[in-house]
Amino acid sequence: MNIDIPAMHLPARKRIFETISKFPGLHFREVQRRTGIGTGALEYHVGVLEKAGLIKVEKKWLGLRLYPRNIGDGESTLLSILRSQNYRNILLFLLNNPNASQGQIASHIGVSPSTMSWYIKKFLEVNVIKGERDGKETRYSVIDGQSLAKTLNTFKSSFLDKSVDNFLKTWEGLF
User: Were 106 and a residue from 54, 116, 134, 161 both cysteine, which residue would form a disulfide, CB within 3.0 to 4.6 Å?
Assistant: First the structure.
């Protein structure tokens, strides 16, 4: 990327910006690992990039995340969720199995019912899934599967995950 503005004249800042652009929604610590830049220096350079309007820093329920400025709020929420393997696996399962019960999801993901309850609560808080009562059970589905699938497709190379690739093969004609 060839950006000729004062904030981008240092190689470290270029490396940080390119990492954030290639992998939007990374945790601060993951940017640090991928760039090899120390915590203090990274904090400084991130601050310069943010003040220059090139990136945005968001503290959401999944921690401090870094995005290029062109990522919208809805997309940044999805990306922050999709950066976590378990959250991503739950959403992929729900996209392929709408109206699944909490027990079905927990069994597929391999977590306890109480852990699944916690995940579900988080998804409901950010309006990514919805639950509908079916007798004694609640059935869960992704609210906007099309947007989720589009976000997965747009950033598929940044996930390095075979389950994302396999999912996208089944939704291939939609993009």
Answer: 116
Q: Which residue has the tokens 């991130």?
A: 46
Q: Which of 43, 95, 71 is nearest to 155 (CA)?
A: 71
Instruction: Report which of 52, 82, 77, 57 is spatially closest to residue 67, judged by C-alpha positions.
Output: 57
Q: What does the pLDDT average to over 123-129? A: 91
User: Which residues, 6+ apart, have CB-to-CB distance to 7 below 8 Å?
Assistant: 13, 48, 49, 51, 52, 54
Tally of CB atoms within 10 A around 28: 17
% residues pLDDT > 90 (the chain): 58
pLDDT of 15 strictly over 80? yes
Q: Which fold has domain 6-71?
A: Arc Repressor Mutant, subunit A (1.10.10)
Cα gap 160→129, rounded to integer Å: 24
Measured between alpha carbons, how far is residue 85 from residues 57, 109, 159 in Å?
Answer: 21, 10, 9
| CATH 1.10.10.10 location in the chain | 6-71, 72-175
Long-range contacts of residues 38-47, Cβ cutoff 8 Å, at least 24 apart: 41/12, 42/16, 45/10, 45/12, 45/13, 45/16, 46/16
